[in-house]
Amino acid sequence: MDGGEPFMGHRACAGCGGALAVRIALKALGRRAVAVLPAGCMSAVGFNFPQLCFSNNAIISTFAGTASMMTGIAAGLRARGERDFKVVGFAGDGGTADIGIQALSGAIDRGDDMIYICYDNEGYMNTGTQRSSLTPYGARTTTTPAAGGARGNRLEKKNMLEIVAAHGIPYAATASVGYLRDYARKVEKAAAIEGPSYIQVLAPCPTGWGADPSETIDLAREAVDCGLWPLAEFEGGRLSLGAEPRDPSLLRAHLARQARFAHLTDGDLRRIEEGRDRRLDRMRGRAAKEEC
Ligand SMILES: Cc1ncc(C[n+]2csc(CCOP(=O)(O)OP(=O)(O)O)c2C)c(N)n1
Ligand code: SF4
Questions:
Q1: Please, what CATH class does the domain formed by 17-291 belong to?
Q2: From ligand 2's centre to the CA of 143, what distance in Å?
C-alpha cells in the first residue's frame, strides 16, 4: 500500500463504512488513481470546496453516469499520452444497481479499463435512507417503513455480483470493510487487470442502519461470519468462495444490533436464514462445478 492518506478531512458521519471503503481503496491504488464519484454520500462528504479531501485527482459525475464518465476520462488521458493511471469509481448501491446500471453494463460490455467499486450501504443514504434494489429483505427505510402493519422492505436484494459477472467481466468480487486486508488485496488485483473490474464492498452506514458508530467494523465482519455476505470472486467467469461462514448462528444477534430490523417477526427472521442458506448452497454448488 501507498503510505499517504488519500481521503481525509471529509465530513462523513462517525463510523461511516463508505468513507473507509474509499480511503482503503485509494491507499491501495496510490497517486495513479483518478476517482469518479456520482451523487451520493461520498461525493457529498468529500468535495466541500475549498476543503477537498482527496490527495489524488477526483471528480463528481452525474448520478447515473459514473461508468460513462470513467470511460471518458480514461479515453481522454490516453489521448494525451498518459499511461500510468487507473480510473476508479466509487458509487453507492442506488447509484450502481438502480440508476447507474446501464452505464456500468455498457462500460463492461466495451471492455473499458476501469475499477468500479460499489460501496454498498444498502440504501439511498445521502437523501435520508430510501430503499434501493440492494436493500435487504425486511430492512426498514423511509420508503419501506415499519409502522401501521408495514414490516419494512418486502423485496429481496438484487444479485448484483452475478449480474455483473454474467457480462463476462474479467474480475468481480465482493468484499467487506470488516476484512480490510482482503478488500485491499482485491483492489490491488483489480488494478493489475487490463479491462473492467467490479468490487462490491459491504459498507455499514450507522446512521441509516440504526447502529452505534463504534460497531461498523463488527457489523461488517459479522455479516461475513454469519453467511449473509459471502466473500466471493469471479475470475475469467469462474466463481471461488472465501472461507465458510464462521458461525451461521450469529445471524439473529447480528440483525438485532441494527434498528432497521427491530420490527422483524420470527417468520421474517426464518425467511432471512433460509434465503441465506439457499444462496450459500447455490454459490457452493456453482463454485464446485467450476472447479471440476
Ligand atoms: C438524477 C438524480 N436523481 C436524484 C438525485 C438525488 N440524489 C442525490 S444522492 C442520492 C442518493 C444516493 O444513494 P446511493 O447511490 O445509494 O449512495 P449513498 O447516498 O448511499 O452513498 C439521490 C437520490 C440526483 N442527484 N440525481
Ligand atoms: S449517512 Fe451513512 S453512508 Fe452517508 S456519510 Fe453518514 S454513515 Fe456514511
A1: alpha beta
A2: 17
How far apart (Å, rounded) are the C-alpha atoms in residues 187 and 115?
Answer: 8
Q: How confident is the model at residue 2 (pLDDT cuts 50, 70, 90)?
A: very low
Looking at residue 3, its pLDDT comes to 52
Q: Is the CB of 206 under 6 A from ligand 2?
A: yes
Closest residue by CA, ligand 2 atom 4: 41
Give the count of beta carbons closer than 10 Å to the beta carbon of residue 80: 7
Q: Give the span between the Cα atoms of 224 and 242, in whole angstroms.
A: 10
Per-residue pLDDT of 126-162, as tens digits, reads 999 999 999 999 999 999 999 999 999 999 999 999 9
Decide: 120 in ligand 1 pocket, CB within 6 A: no
What are the residue boundaries of the structural domains of the chain, listed by start?
A: 17-291
Task: Report residue 87 as a C-alpha cell.
Answer: 480510473
The Cα 123–Cα 142 span in angstroms is: 10
Grid coordinates representing 101?
A: 446500471
Query: What pTM was computed for the model?
Result: 0.98
